[in-house]
Write a structure and sequence with these properties.
The complex is a heterodimer of chains A (about 250) and B (about 190).
Chain A (H helix, E strand, L loop, with lengths): L1 E2 L6 E2 L2 H10 L8 H36 L8 H11 L2 H18 L3 H4 L3 H20 L3 H10 L7 H8 L6 E10 L2 E6 L4 E6 L16 E9 L2 E10 L16
Parallel strand pairs in A: 5-7
Antiparallel strand pairs in A: 1-2, 3-4, 3-6, 4-5, 6-7
Helix pairs in contact in A: 2-4, 2-6, 4-6, 7-8
Chain B lengths: L1 H5 L6 H9 L6 H17 L5 H17 L10 H19 L9 H4 L7 H5 L3 H11 L5 H12 L4 H8 L3 H21 L5
The chains are: A alpha+beta (about 250), B mainly alpha (about 190).
């Protein structure tokens, strides 16, 4: 026992205080399984958030390519401006948040915190981007979009319906149905028939001839079903690659 | 019983920790006796209030006992205990709204280790006496590695393990802390 000089009261030593609490059962040793489960939970969290961020990145790229936004920077500064405006910022923010959570979880492991955050963050971002781009090359998203449209996708249906293939005022994506005198007509993926009118000062005239059946992205001002095109670009037919793109009946 | 046990001073901390893990609770008393003064000295550098220090000290050892199964005998017990102390001191500082910054550029960027030798060449005892008097003026981020290195005699690697930061960051923090200390000491008319 020691004497506290401040209040002149006898206080038990630290050893006695701690052992007292241990013996009275106030403090118990956490079993080894607690720490094992904790580690498993962290690994599970890293894998879970990792899969989620890869899925979201692949979805963002799918959304950009399917809607035609992906091709806008090719239309110069004006295209770049519209591109930045139309980027799915909310999804990008969610991805950044998930990457931050991943970094925090990964830092629980010594092989991560022993190196500067710069490296681990870079590794997470690279893995997420490469993984996302690989997944985007598979038929996963077109298939899920198809299921969402048919109402067979309960968990991410609204996300696919909202982001999957939206129509924007400034950018249109579709397949050429008919070539007319001053432009052509395209069928969009949401089954609208739009007349594309080529304006004289179009900065990016297509180098190749546009013919029926070509997939194109058109940047321009839309009024009702007519689009005054500032830029046109012939693109690969993204959805034909997967052969399961939903074709509407009667078309 | 504990008197008998305390005679077994020859035993390493890690072996005693293993005995506690095996259910021999009373051996934990030896570890407290061995580290009470060291951890108290460490805590004093962050907390001024006598009651706060004692409460935190008790929390540290209770936490150590509670988590003793997570201690890996292949590692040093002292480093493990200082890690727990570091976490508890952060909690204590948070309560006093003096928490450490959330983001730290020192940990973010890769830094060269070459500055380390500069610090090691200085007489640790001599510098320790002076910096003790200027230490309070340093922020906890720089104060902690200085304390662990000059007062607790931990190696760079051990400090890295306690603070869970890269080894190079330990070097740069000690170097920067020393520069800041120099300024502070000059203001207080000490020569460093």
């Amino acid at each position: 026992m020691i004497m506290d000089s401040n209040n002149q009261e006898e206080k038990p030593s630290l050893v006695n205080q701690v052992l007292e609490k241990i013996k009275s059962g106030q403090i118990k040793i956490r079993p080894k399984i607690y720490f094992i489960l904790k580690t498993i939970l962290i690994i599970g969290g890293v894998l879970g958030f990792g899969v989620l961020v890869i899925f979201l990145i692949s979805f963002i790229r799918f959304h950009l390519r399917a809607s035609g936004i992906w091709y806008l920077p090719g239309f110069g500064f004006r295209g770049l401006g519209i591109y930045l405006k139309l980027l799915p910022w909310f999804l990008i923010f969610i991805c950044l948040l998930l990457i931050l959570i991943l970094e925090i979880l990964a830092k629980r492991f010594s092989f991560v915190w022993r190196r500067p955050i710069f490296y681990s963050l870079l590794a997470i971002i690279l893995i997420a981007l490469i993984g996302g781009f690989i997944i985007e090359k598979t038929p996963l998203h077109p298939n899920l979009l198809l299921q969402a449209r048919e109402g067979r996708l309960p968990f991410a249906g609204p996300m696919y319906r909202d982001f999957g293939m939206p129509s924007f005022k400034d950018v249109q994506r579709g397949v050429v149905e008919e070539v007319i005198e001053n432009g052509f007509k395209i069928r969009t993926f949401d089954d609208q028939l739009l007349t594309i009118v080529l304006i004289r000062d179009m900065r990016f005239p297509f180098k190749e001839e546009i013919k029926q059946g070509d997939s194109v992205v058109v940047m321009g001002e839309r009024e009702d079903d007519t689009v005054r095109a500032f830029g046109i670009r012939k693109i690969e037919d993204y959805f034909r690659t997967f052969e399961r793109f939903p074709r509407r009946p009667g078309r | 019983m504990r008197e008998e046990i305390s005679h077994q001073n020859v035993q390493k901390d890690e072996e005693i920790a293993y005995l506690v893990q095996s259910g021999k609770v009373e051996f934990f008393g030896i570890l407290i006796e061995r580290y009470e003064e060291k951890i108290k000295r460490y805590a004093r550098k962050f907390l001024a209030d006598h009651e706060d220090i004692n409460d935190t000290l008790q929390d540290i050892f209770l936490k150590a006992y509670e988590n003793i199964e997570s201690f890996d005998r292949k590692r040093k017990f002292s480093t493990w205990l200082y890690r727990i102390s570091h976490n508890e001191l952060i909690n204590a500082l948070k309560k006093k709204k003096k928490s450490l910054p959330l983001f730290d550029l020192d940990v973010f960027l890769p830094i060269s280790l070459h500055d380390r030798t500069l610090v090691e060449n200085i007489d640790k005892k001599e510098i320790g006496q002076i910096i003790n008097q200027c230490l309070d003026k340093l922020t906890p981020k720089y104060r902690e590695p200085i304390i662990l290195y000059y007062f607790e005699n931990l190696t760079y690697q051990e400090i890295a393990d306690v603070l869970e930061i890269p080894l190079s960051t330990v070097g740069i923090r000690i170097k920067r802390a020393k520069e800041k200390m120099k300024k502070i000491c000059e203001e207080l008319e000490y020569k460093l």
